[in-house]
Amino acid sequence: MIEGLKEMPLFATVSSDKLENLICDNQIDKKYYMSGVTFYDQGDECETFDLILSGSLVTYSLAENGSQMMMFEFSRGHTLGANLLFGDTHTYPFSVYCQERAEIIHLTKDAVMTLLYNYDFTLNFVGIVSSNSQKLNQKIYMTMHRTLRENLLDFFQQQAHLQKTNYFRLPISKKQLADQMGVQRPSLFRELKRLKEDGVIEVENRYIHLKKTL
Amino acid sequence: MIEGLKEMPLFATVSSDKLENLICDNQIDKKYYMSGVTFYDQGDECETFDLILSGSLVTYSLAENGSQMMMFEFSRGHTLGANLLFGDTHTYPFSVYCQERAEIIHLTKDAVMTLLYNYDFTLNFVGIVSSNSQKLNQKIYMTMHRTLRENLLDFFQQQAHLQKTNYFRLPISKKQLADQMGVQRPSLFRELKRLKEDGVIEVENRYIHLKKTL
DNA sequence: TCCTAAAAGTATCATATGTGTCTTTTATTT
DNA sequence: AAATAAAAGACACATATGATACTTTTAGGA
């Protein structure tokens, strides 16, 4: 477990002794989670800082009326709870599910507070919390100021860039894509149809051909 | 200036010597801003951590098409830039304007990095960044999952609670209220009219009478 | 291989909000 | 007090998305 931790930049400079002490003190804990398991429900108290060693998690923001939006995906090296442990409220603002069988290290708030005596850890930790904020800002911008079509085209262009071709395979199902865009599935299909009609894209099952780059 | 800083919880435990060194080194700087001045434009590089000694600022998230939404209000004791200095990107995700003549202390990133050697400062700083995240989460929830009517009723109930009466004065103009709700002004009036028609509220100029509490 | 459940796809109707324009009232400045 | 600007208020129309319901296709397990 200590080795696993030390592989992460966040813990690189933390001494093995300190880690061992915390482990013996039950402040650090490793658990495994099966795919599909609910990690945290929206509204749950956040009591630990979680580091992902393997597998992946997804977070969904849920509305009272049942609508939902996929917020973030977390995988190896990512962390959870950093911005919840030290704020005014400590409840999860979204639900967290296990996507692929995951190996997670849980640290108590006390453990994190101890580690914050380490300057390098502090800088890393602050960086993590800041990056999270920035992702939130991006989501806000997406959902507040932009139309589905704009967000879709952005996503397609990003994929075209990643896969280095204008004819690329969608990395996720259209259902997931709808979730990620924060719209109902029929809305997504409607917009895809319009984009086809307007000659901007072609759709073949899971493949998209991006014809115009605005 | 040192006295002004020491009044803030964030700097309470920082030694005067350290502050003096940083000031002499031009790492800490005090400036005054007139009401109406643009502090930062959306997209500007964030280079300093800013602490408000007096006055107030507002932040607006702007869209390419000109639509805008008021995000946050900051006043004495609040800070700006904490979650920007240490993340992946360092650009302001919204524009910041001076609302009331303000007295601001600017700290360079280096100054903050120095101060992070102080454990109490670190805990405070992490708390600030975390709280900011939580505010962002709230905004996301508001704009993503809720209708204008719900947000309005929330706001009214909050005001009724604050002013301890169901017949209260709006603390801001309806124009500002529309901005805060993230909608166009006509949309706000339309909804106010509907709420009147449905017997939920009565509107008399700047006063609202909240008749039903759901 | 067949069966079943999930994903994909389509159509219709309802509704929330944006956009533009116009009038009236209130506030500010000279 | 008059002049001007800003806010308030209302209306018509356009549009984006939600909600629902249904069919077809795909994929995974017995």
Task: Produce the secondary structure layout.
The structure is a homodimer of 214-residue chains.
Chain A: H1 2-6, H2 16-24, E1 28-33, E2 38-40, E3 48-62, E4 68-75, E5 79-80, H3 82-85, E6 95-108, H4 109-115, H5 119-145, H6 148-162, E7 167-169, H7 174-181, H8 185-197, E8 201-204, E9 207-210
Antiparallel strand pairs in A: 1-6, 2-6, 3-4, 3-5, 3-6, 7-9, 8-9
Helix pairs in contact in A: 7-8
The structure holds a DNA duplex (30 and 30 nucleotides).
Structure description:
Two copies of one chain form a homodimer. Chain A has helices at 2-6, 16-24, 82-85, 109-115, 119-145, 148-162, 174-181, 185-197; strands at 28-33, 38-40, 48-62, 68-75, 79-80, 95-108, 167-169, 201-204, 207-210. The model of chain A has no long low-confidence stretch (mean pLDDT 93). In chain A, a hairpin with a 5-residue loop joins strand 3 (48-62) and strand 4. In chain A, 41% of the residues lie in helices and 28% in strands. In chain A, helix 7 packs across helix 8. Chain A is an alpha+beta fold and 214 residues long. In chain A, strands 1, 2, 3, 4, 5 and 6 form a six-stranded antiparallel β-sheet that branches. Chain A has a three-stranded antiparallel β-sheet with strand order 7-9-8. Chain A contains eight helices and nine strands. At the A-B interface, helix 3 and helix 5 of A face helix 3 and helix 5 of B. The structure holds a DNA duplex (30 and 30 nucleotides).
